Amino acid sequence: MMNYEKARRTILEKVAPAGIERVLLLEAAGRVLAEDYSAPSDMPRWDNSAMDGFAVRSAGCAPGTVLKVTDYIPAGVSSGDAVVEGCAARIMTGAPIPPGADAVVPIEETEAGEQSVKLLLQVKKGDHIRFQGEDVGRGDLIMPKGTLIGPPQVSLLASFSAAVVPVYRRVRVAILSTGDELVEIGTEPKESQIVNSNALALACAIKLCGAEPVILGIARDNRESHLALLTEGLKADVLVTSAGVSAGDRDLVREILAELGVMEQFWKPGVKPGGPTAFALRGNTPVFSLPGNPVSTMITFDEFVRPALLRMMGHEKALRRTVRGYLKEGTRKKAGKLNFLRVQVTIEDGRYLASTAGDQNTGILKTMLRCNALALLPADRTEFAAGEEVELHLLDPTLEMED
Ligand code: AMP
Ligand code: MG
């Protein structure tokens, strides 16, 4: 049996970004920039007014000075006429500063008529001007490769008119459920049948990673069915299977994958739930074989598959946010495997406190509904007292904002 840390390291060492594509800016939302982006020009592109007011020459502007208004420059218009001494140009926010002017006097600091304007306060050179390049200078590396693209990145890229941007490709993830007991969603299961809920849960989790799920259906517990559908699944960027990965005589996934030339990297990563999880590769294609129990499927996806998908899509932060927290209640477990305790974390006095999210039996699905973090109970330990410090993987990214 492998250990958990080594299993996770193995996965992250073996996967690499899947490739780059150029997409329309909005398609890049939530994705990762695949090339350095340097500003193609200054921003602002020219000196412009930060206020509605009057563009003036500051030298001749004492309080009480009356200037003749000789020009009108609304936003979207550029005036070639110089502002000369004794004169001012009426100017609107965003409009280019006309030649000769070196300050803007806000309308609120004047008594303004149609033909003339009286200045009420002292004017300093540079007042209320947004200078060319003061935000971003031409050639500045403003977004290195690896930048996650959100609204501020989109705003800047759009302001430079970057309609198409290079991002890491989304990965296509094939999902194969296995088992004779399964029926597809929408079918009323007979006694002894269960609905193939894992396919949907996995597809949901894959979507939330920003990847593209491809549901292949159900492989029945025979060689032909497994061969056909696993072969199909290996055409995707990543293959995820559920069930059929333990040591039962109907558990065919590992055997048939091996037949298809898939090289197993580990089986049994020393965790509970998720004991029989396997990770394998065919060429660059990662294959994750997850246990069929829906709780185990979800937890092993989060711990092993999610980091791989995020890394393949260029994310530098591939792992869940990990914090130290404290158990609210004591608990015990068997020695030998790292246990994922499904917990509900709250933040009190700046500390993360973890209480059980419910019955920890892997048959109890509803505990997942209340679970916003996993507490990692180390393999070699058995007894945990209330108040003990543990490592937490936060499943809810908003948790940190509550303190
Ligand atoms: P197995 O790994 O084949 O021993 O399956 C473990 C448990 O998970 C069994 O109770 C299965 O019925 C259940 N299971 C297997 N596949 C699925 C699936 N696709 N959706 C929901 N439950 C499943
Ligand atoms: Mg089975």
Description:
This protein has 403 residues and is of the alpha/beta class. 17% of the residues lie in helices and 32% in strands. The protein is built from six helices and 28 strands. The strands form eight sheets. It has a six-stranded mixed sheet, with no helix packed on it. Strands 16-13-17-21-20-18 form a six-stranded mixed sheet, sandwiched between helices. Strand 24 (338-348) and strand 25 form a beta hairpin. Helix 3 (197-208) packs parallel to helix 6 (294-312). The longest helix is centred in the last third of the chain and has 19 residues, at 294-312. It is elongated, with a radius of gyration of 31 Å. The mean pLDDT is 96. The protein binds adenosine monophosphate and magnesium ion (MG).
Largest sheet data: 6 strands, mixed
Ligand catalogue: adenosine monophosphate, magnesium ion
Task: Please count the beta strands (DSSP E, at least 2 residues each).
Answer: 28
- Sum up the overall morphology in one term: elongated
Q: What structural category do the secondary elements indicate?
A: alpha/beta
What is the number of helices? 6
What is the CA-atom radius of gyration, in angstroms? Answer: 31 Å
Tell me the helix content.
10-25%
Mean pLDDT: 96
Strand content: 25-35%
Distance between the termini: 39 Å
Low-confidence stretches: none
